Amino acid sequence: MSLGPTAYLVLAAALFSIGSIGLLVRRNVLVMFMCVELMLNAVNLTFVTFARQLDDIAGQVLVFFVLVVAAAEVVVGLGIIVSIFRHRTGATADDLQTLKG
Amino acid sequence: MTPTIAASAPDLVVFGVAAAIILGGAFGVIICRNPVRSALSLVATLIGVGVLFVAQEAHFLFAVQIIVYAGAIVVLFLFVIMLLGVDKVNSIRRDPLPGQRPLAIVFSLAMGALIVALARWSWEATGAPSQGGTASGPGTNIEKLSDSIFTQYFFAFEATSLLLVIAVVGAVYLARRPSSPTSHIAIDAIADTEPAEDSSAEVGVVASSEHEGIAPK
User: Fold this and answer.
1) How far is A36 from chain B (nearest CA, A)?
2) Which segments of chain B have a pLDDT < 70?
């Protein structure tokens, strides 16, 4: 048996906080997207830790579903980013000020 | 609370190295100015998380993590970065909302401290097991995972297939080029980039194909 759950949970909390800081501070849309992936990975690490700690395979099943949803999210999100920035130069969130249909 | 288990030295070393890789990669993602370096730092973080999956006996999820995340998603990120061009604008220095950055850091750190407090003291919510089955016992990890997915969570599994189909159709729809210039997306693009050149080209085509007596559209 290896380490207790607390070390993993604290590490996951740190990773989640770093992802949150990056999501709120950075202005590049792609880097913001990567920070969302960081937060998803922190949650996955928490799920796997609880799956081992509570001796329950459902946590790992949930991580599997999170991976599928993350893949779908990245595909659609990057498609939106490409279609927005096809005619612009930089991928910065501050450039997206106009709300037009 | 759980019984404290005496951790052996190799586990501590594995956890320490993986934690250093994870945190270093995460800081690299949010600090690097070049998005390509952010993507490569993201690979380091994903592999570190995969190592901790192995350390907690989630072997199938480790394989999926490497294949899907580090293989597919990061490659997709790199493709989009190369497609859009690497942004040379110094995006860290710009701060259009005054006070937004320190507030963001303070709120994020407070949220992290809250999660740590929850993890330290009250992480056991109900203590009731789910209906998914146990993680330990006889059989390999992938056998138990597949047993649970294809029996207890079968409806959710089928729903993810529907989700993937929707994502693929949406991505194809978003990435296609506008076919007819009458759609408002194309008009927007033309108005954004070069209105004069495009209209003159269209007039030229009309004038060369049918020489006289045509009213301009």
Assistant:
1) 11
2) 1-7, 86-96, 122-129, 178-217
User: What tokens were used for B10?
Assistant: 């190799």
CB A57 within 8 A of CB A38: no
Give start and end residues of each alpha helix (H) in A26-86. 29-53, 58-84
CA pair distance B94, A48, nearest whole angstrom: 38
In chain A, positions 31-50, which contact chain B (CB-CB < 8 Å)?
Answer: 31, 33-35, 37-38, 41, 44-45, 48-50
- The residues spanned by each domain of chain A are 29-89
Best mutation target, B12, B74, B78, B84, to test chain A (most A CBs within 10 A) = B84
Question: What is each CA distance from B169 to A68, B10, B159, in whole angstroms?
Answer: 16, 47, 16
CB nearest to B61's CB, from A10, A64, A76? A64
Looking at the predicted complex, does its ipTM rise above 0.90?
no
**A88 CA: distance to closest CA in chain B (Å):** 9
Whether residue A56 and residue B72 make contact (CB cut-off 8 A), yes or no, is no
Per-residue pLDDT of chain A (101 residues; tens, 9 = 90+): 457 788 899 999 999 999 999 999 888 888 999 999 999 999 999 999 988 888 888 889 999 999 999 999 999 999 888 887 776 666 667 666 665 55
Rounded to two decimals, the pTM is 0.79
Nearest to B56 among A31, A49, A65 (CB): A49
